[in-house]
Amino acid sequence: MAETKTTVTAAAAKTTTTSHQPKKSSNVFAALAVPICLVIGILFYAFVLGSPANFQGGVVGGHPVEEGIGKWFGTVYMGGYVVPVLISVLLICLTFVIERFLYLSKAKGKFSGAELVRKVQYHLANKNVDAALAECDKQQGSVGNVIKAGLKKYKEMITNTELDTDQKILTIKNEIEETTALELPMMEKNLVFLSTIASIATLLGLFGTVLGMIRAFASMATGGAPDSAQLAGGISEALINTALGIGTSAVSIIMYNYFTTNIDSITYAIDESGFTLTQSFAANHK
User: pTM score, two decimals?
Assistant: First the structure.
């Protein structure tokens, strides 16, 4: 009889911990952002950097004007056909930086996860689960969402008479883990674009650099005195692509590390909250 009862309660525990279903999320934002940034990058290169006003005599591809913003625009335009690709990659990087910054700012909530955990600890020590739930509603972040799900299961287990204490703790723990499994992918979403750009931007810059050096040495291999204008143009093309590639890669790496650090701090607060709930239940509801 004892073995039969254990089997039934274990099955009941398993049933209560599978209430969460994975969310299917289509990344419409990324599907739209990437081609839009590519189009903007190409148009910016053709009509802004390649404006006749940026070149002496209005001859596109000639010598850039000697002063003003047009001098810089004309110089960058001389970087060649890899430049619009690099500009597009930079725009994609900035787009996802802004998107992740806004999302993670929301995920952090109105106050820190560590502060929420301390408040929940205080209310649970006083056996006031409803007050702890109210604090989660005030926080409005990922940590608050996870703790709220755990607290609801916590409150349910207090009145549960079918499971023993260890099974109740396991049920609460599973609820927290399932909610965490739904929150973390949303925080890490689109970071793959930043990590990819960190590598691709440098490679694209090097590709443009190689093309520029080929152009430079080709001008020296024509026989006779080398064409100084073509030589300077090739070297300029090489350096412009290198600068754009390295700059874009640096921005991507810095922001990727910034976001992962923020996600780690949120994850730590979530882990701490799970430990708090299980330890509190074990101490107050034996």
Answer: 0.83
